[in-house]
TrEMBL record:
Residues that hold a divalent metal cation 2 according to the record: 168, 192
Keyword Hydrolase: yes
PANTHER family named among the record's database cross-references: D-AMINOACYL-TRNA DEACYLASE (PTHR46124:SF2)
Annotated source species: uncultured Blastococcus sp
Protein name: Uncharacterized metal-dependent hydrolase YcfH
């Protein structure tokens, strides 16, 4: 996921209506509220982030459909600071902090940036380091070495602070496993927006990783994702939006938001053959195992 033009493209159109509430509370394990609501322009130190009122309204809309817990994910130093601040202010939000692989590929994961991510990762309401990883789609070969160096640095930050690791993997399945096997994956490792087939899912599951599925699970051409989800133990599953991106069916192409998680949860229940309320409870339990309790500071 890239900033600028891609962010604007994914905010076009009218927001979809909220779905029917889930029978039990569940989480959105990966959202970008700053982008959903319009992030500060890159390089504009005098721009404005979304207002507290707008953020609170988004969180309330999610809670109204029983999406009661969110993980707000940073992708730059600035958005990571914003994410950490939001989690400090809002009891239903935890934060993840990182320099995104595409940012790293453009040279933005320098020593100062990584030192700030390291500082933020120690904060009580920051529970994950990510999204970090490798992207062979948007970053060309000239940026791959910088991406891998950043990925390895983020792995060490996660292990140093006992945080979960949230991985961005685009067209880099084998490279991701190579780095994790070499560097040593943190005890709690999440493949965000899982994009592999059943074979890759098994390789990840065998390593103890958690697979987080986004709205792509509902796409008509994503049979391979449904096969991957079907062979994944329920206790190694999470669900997410990656909002404002990857809006689930039937609203594909319109802006995504945490309140649309129920579409993906229902699809996941069908794919796994799990009763809906039970799946919600198990997703919530896995969320707490990966990120810790929402209502506590440590």
């Amino acid at each position: 996921m890239s900033r600028s033009a891609n962010s604007r493209a994914n905010r076009r159109g009218e927001p979809p209506p909220s779905p029917e509430p889930l029978p039990s509370p569940v989480l959105d394990s990966h959202t970008h509220l700053d982008i959903v609501l319009g992030e500060r322009p890159a390089g504009d130190e005098h721009g404005q982030w979304a207002s507290e009122e707008d953020v609170d309204a988004e969180i309330a809309a999610a809670a109204a459909v029983n999406v009661t817990r969110l993980v707000q994910v940073g992708v730059t130093v600035a958005s990571s600071r914003w994410s950490a601040d939001l989690a400090t202010r809002h009891p239903s939000v935890l934060a993840a902090v990182a320099i995104h692989p595409n940012e790293a590929g453009e040279g933005r994961a320098d020593d100062d940036a990584l030192a700030e991510i390291d500082r933020l990762a120690a904060l009580p309401r920051v529970r994950a380091v990510g999204e970090t990883g490798l992207d062979r789609y948007r970053t060309g070969p000239e940026g791959w070495a910088a991406q891998e160096a950043s990925f390895r640095a983020h792995i060490e930050i996660a292990k140093r602070h006992g945080r979960a690791l949230v991985i961005h993997d685009r067209d880099a399945h084998e490279e991701i496993l190579r780095v994790l096997d070499d560097a040593g994956a943190p005890e709690r490792t999440v493949l965000h927006c899982f994009s592999g087939d059943a074979g890759f899912a098994k390789a990840c599951v065998d390593r103890g990783f958690v697979l987080s599925f986004a709205g792509t699970l509902t796409f008509g051409n994503a049979g391979y994702l449904r096969e991957a989800a079907a062979i994944t133990p329920v206790d190694q599953l999470l669900v997410e939006t990656d909002s404002p991106f990857l809006t689930p069916m039937p609203h594909r192409g319109r802006p995504n938001a945490s309140r649309l998680v129920p579409h993906t949860v229902r699809a996941l229940a069908e794919v796994t053959g799990t009763e809906l309320a039970e799946l919600c409870a198990r997703l919530t339990a896995t969320g707490e195992r990966v990120f810790g309790p929402w209502g506590e500071s440590g």
